[in-house]
């Protein structure tokens, strides 16, 4: 399900319908919190005088809770909409070209799901080629989301290089496993949900409390070594094949900015367990674009995700696991029904069998050293114009040399 097309973006998609949060610094000055307005960053500490915005991360502000989030957003929007307010904000608007962007928040814990039915089916086809089902989904798929825990220390800010991972993989001849650089390095373009308010140990966060805990969303690229992953996925599942790098966009788009992008969510049959049944519309009609070396290779539709962000949060905490400010959880690769809507090269190229052509005349089944991957995202804003989720980018580098 997708909504109507948004009107053209104003201010590059960073107008007052958006107002995403980030952390920036200028030469000789400490980092601080700001919101992006067009091609500027509004220094919130300067314009508001609130010391919570003089921090080097969003964590202290996010911990204040939803009432504070809404009040701050309303205040900034009010200033930018009035003549007197614009005069007051003028001295605190910093041109983007003179600002250095920093990680927007300190990642506490990181988890990633496989929320797309199409991506889950692509993985199953590659893992079990003997299966002839048109959409082979893992056992138990309709009953709970599939997920794994990642490494908070491997979450990288957009623009960071990604060394090709090294690990153990299956030998083509069925002999002893090989150890070396991944030969099937992939991407997973998706959404990340940023937790603002935590919970106590033993208390699950019910699906109805999604907006009380989640502050906003970012773009993610969960880099994946398919060959390392294939070897380790049985019996315990993903480990080194997906724990080496996850790239994150620098701007956190508040949930309130995505009100016009909310949708009922994809039909689920059979109905999931009661604790996972939706009671609000938290499907998000966000369109991603995946580019390799500047060539758009797919446009994944987030509205087609089988499991929505509120369901993922409810499942993440169903066993009583506590949430902390700065927790990040991702959707995994977003994929639609068509090949040109797949959020991974695994799905886009049929596990490398049908390489995608790039504008420079080369083609890719999987990534080569030197390739730059960029994921962007857009949605309809409350005023009808398109808003931008920014971009997340990373360049593949050769493996880090090993000591003898």
From TrEMBL:
Highest taxon of source: Bacteria
Residues annotated as binding Mg(2+): 222, 246
Pathway: Amino-acid degradation; L-phenylalanine degradation; acetoacetate and fumarate from L-phenylalanine: step 6/6
Catalytic-site annotation from UniProt: 119
Binding site for substrate: 128
Presence of the UniProt keyword Hydrolase in the record: yes
Keyword field: Calcium, Hydrolase, Magnesium, Metal-binding, Phenylalanine catabolism, Tyrosine catabolism
Region annotation Disordered: where it falls in the sequence: 123-178
Domain Fumarylacetoacetase-like C-terminal: start-end pairs: 110-395
Ranges for domain Fumarylacetoacetase N-terminal: 18-98
Binding, Ca(2+): 188, 222
One GO process term, biological-process aspect: L-tyrosine catabolic process
Gene Ontology MF annotations: fumarylacetoacetase activity; metal ion binding
EC number(s) from the headed UniProt entry: 3.7.1.2
Cofactor: Mg(2+); Ca(2+)
Protein name in UniProt: fumarylacetoacetase
Organism of origin: Marinitenerispora sediminis
């Amino acid at each position: 399900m997708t909504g109507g097309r948004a009107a053209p973006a104003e201010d590059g998609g960073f107008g007052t319908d958006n107002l995403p949060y980030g952390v920036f610094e200028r030469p000789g000055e400490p980092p601080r919190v700001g919101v992006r307005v067009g091609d500027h960053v509004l220094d919130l500490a300067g314009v508001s005088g609130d010391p919570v915005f003089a921090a080097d991360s969003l964590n202290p502000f996010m911990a204040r809770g939803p009432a504070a989030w809404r009040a701050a957003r309303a205040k900034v929007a009010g200033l930018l909409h009035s003549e007197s307010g614009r005069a007051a904000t003028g001295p605190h608007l910093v041109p983007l070209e003179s600002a250095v962007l920093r990680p927007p928040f300190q990642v506490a814990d990181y988890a990633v799901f496989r929320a797309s039915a199409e991506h889950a089916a692509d993985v199953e086809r590659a893992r079990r080629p003997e299966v002839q089902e048109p959409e082979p989904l893992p056992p138990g798929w309709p009953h709970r989301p599939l997920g794994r825990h990642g490494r908070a220390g491997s979450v990288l800010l957009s623009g960071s290089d990604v060394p090709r991972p090294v690990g153990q993989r299956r030998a083509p001849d069925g002999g002893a496993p090989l150890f070396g650089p991944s030969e099937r390095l992939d991407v997973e373009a998706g959404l990340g949900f940023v937790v603002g308010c935590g919970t106590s140990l033993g208390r699950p966060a019910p699906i109805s409390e999604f907006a009380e805990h989640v502050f906003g969303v970012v773009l993610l690229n969960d880099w994946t070594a398919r060959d390392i992953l294939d070897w380790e996925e049985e019996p315990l599942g993903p480990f080194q094949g997906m724990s080496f790098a996850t790239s994150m966009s620098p701007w956190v788009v508040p949930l309130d900015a995505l009100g016009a992008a909310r949708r009922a969510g994809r039909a689920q049959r059979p109905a999931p367990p009661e604790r996972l049944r939706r009671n609000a519309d938290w499907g998000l009609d966000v369109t991603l674009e995946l580019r390799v070396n500047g060539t758009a290779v797919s446009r994944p539709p987030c509205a087609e995700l089988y499991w929505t962000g509120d369901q993922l949060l409810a499942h993440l905490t169903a066993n009583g696991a506590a949430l902390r400010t700065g927790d990040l959880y991702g959707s995994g690769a977003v994929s639609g029904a068509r090949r040109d809507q797949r959020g991974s090269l695994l799905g886009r190229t049929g596990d490398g069998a049908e390489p995608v052509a790039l504008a420079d005349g080369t083609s890719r089944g999987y990534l080569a050293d030197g390739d730059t991957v960029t994921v962007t995202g857009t949605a309809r804003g409350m005023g009808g114009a398109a808003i931008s989720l920014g971009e997340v980018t990373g360049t593949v580098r050769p493996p880090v040399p090993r000591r003898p």
